Amino acid sequence: MKCIDRILLIVCLISPLYGYSCSKVKRDILFQTSTINALLEGIYDGDVTFGELRKYGDFGLGTLNGLDGELVVLDGKFYQVRSDGIVNPVDSSMKTPFAVVTFHEADKTVMANKSLNLEQLEGYLDSILPSQNIFYAIRIDGTFRYIKVRSVPRQERPYPRLVDVVKNQPTFEFYDMKGTIVAFWLPEYINGINIPGYHFHFLTEDKQSGGHILSVITGDIRIQIDYTSEIHMVLPGSKEFSSVDLTKEKQKELESVEK
Amino acid sequence: MKCIDRILLIVCLISPLYGYSCSKVKRDILFQTSTINALLEGIYDGDVTFGELRKYGDFGLGTLNGLDGELVVLDGKFYQVRSDGIVNPVDSSMKTPFAVVTFHEADKTVMANKSLNLEQLEGYLDSILPSQNIFYAIRIDGTFRYIKVRSVPRQERPYPRLVDVVKNQPTFEFYDMKGTIVAFWLPEYINGINIPGYHFHFLTEDKQSGGHILSVITGDIRIQIDYTSEIHMVLPGSKEFSSVDLTKEKQKELESVEK
Question: Do you know which Gene3D superfamilies this protein is assigned to (chains A, B) (predicted)?
Fold first, then answer.
């Protein structure tokens, strides 16, 4: 054990006496800001900065304040896929209204070289996930014979609902493109809080393009799945969040927004 | 700033470089083990000890492994209300299949001396909660003109479903009893994970009786509400949890179990 580790361990042991909590960083935990139903209702401004979000994961997806594009988090770097297709690095001071991150550490790795469309890819992943009751962060690297993504345009107040925004979403298509799918699979009971089932974002290998996946045909891919049994959710402190009606059933809206 | 605080602060600042996380203990966060739907399905054994649970709160409710009674956590002490009505302190090495705790710090305090039945008490609380979208830990101290509670008997494997267990639940009635209600109110979107709306447990002032509240008429009471905007949920690692079907709609079962 290195000297610095010993010192940290000793400080960790005494820290609870002084109102501090000190431990090895929890890496097998999903962290999310706000709820998907709040996003569907047009709550597009959150109070969590990307500087803060970075502490909770190096892998994930979401969006940016003002609904200013799709967020892809890969290898600890945060990327904004704007609605004009341009990818920017995300500044630590920027904020997110909805994001999900974790530290990705593969519990299972599978190679595949079949041509799978989105439905077949989901079916294949279904067959290798060990339980329907925990969370999965799924990283898929490789070549994609075809991929269609969308982004969302920055909104101005008063914010429209998400289902109306995506009626005019810009889409982008790529053929034989190398890149990475950043995805989560979440259980049915997460309904209202996040998206049950799969949620796929994409980033090209050159980090120049990406977005929320609408369609895909895979080539040679490597699938790495991180099994996760904890979730930590932080709700926005805004008046808008406090007063929005989150009780409505939104299954159909969610499908039209996601697909 | 005291010397020890300075040292801890400096160590906290450098700790992320070495894979540690160090911060003031988060007190405004709800911590829960497992999901209510898993409990309804008969997943009565969890892997979280009360020694571990204690780190996450001094106030809360739940049950014990084997469904061995109702759990009440008050002022940092853990109480087991057994099905024979006896209250025992909970040993740190014992485990819970389902529990919710937080550090209770009142954001709002209200005195009331009306005679309220359970429905009226819920209506009154509804009128003073500022938002339907965050979590509330509710502590009610005072005199109760009437209170009816239940506990649940320890189960043997193979475990029956919760809805069948409560068909034979022992109940206890008290008149003009001093004590404390330990309760939570959770939003509708928590459905499947925890109980939307109110969930009331009770402990008498002498810590000799208590249970899950079925009926009440309040006397002079002090209501202290803790507003909470974060939740941390840890799922069980057991094979039983992994394989149980959590997708079924359980609203009616939940009502028959709670009321």
Answer: Hypothetical protein, similar to alpha- acetolactate decarboxylase, domain 2
